[in-house]
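ESCALATION

Customer reports they have been waiting on this structure for their group meeting. Please prioritize. Original submission:
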Amino acid sequence: MVDDKNREIYLTQEGLENVKEELKVLKLENRPEIIRAIKEARALGDLSENADYHSAREEQAIIESRIQELEALVDNAIIIKKNRKDEIGIGSTIVIEYTEDKEQEEYTIVGSKETNPSENKISNESPIAKSIIGHKKGEILTVDSPNGKYEIKIIEIK
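Update from on-call: job pushed to the front of the queue and completed.
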């Protein structure tokens, strides 16, 4: 896991709300449930051979780790503001054309914690985003990716 404790994390307002909701559920529902399960398993006696107890303790460690991760996200979140439509930035939705095959794709540039390829949300740390942030409609740019270099044209900034 990447250490998010001192790192700026870009999130949309919706993404931050989702993180806060998950944190609330973990703290107010999941944590008390696992504490109850541990108490019940302890009541069964010998802890050295108590699978329920060991399973509950493992689940507790997972929950506590996730709580810490989400708290770091909330503490270090930088809310993505809607950008101007004349220059690409984090939060921009753009249409690009791959110049080699003229295929067009629409992407929204989000922070790395909200990346979702199935929704065409790409990380600001991705090769495409790194290449186009700060650029304008109509520009043709070279993207340097792990799979090699290719050219794209910025068709539209929404």
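Sent to customer with the following note: Residues 34 and 58 are 10 Å apart (CA to CA).
Escalation resolved.
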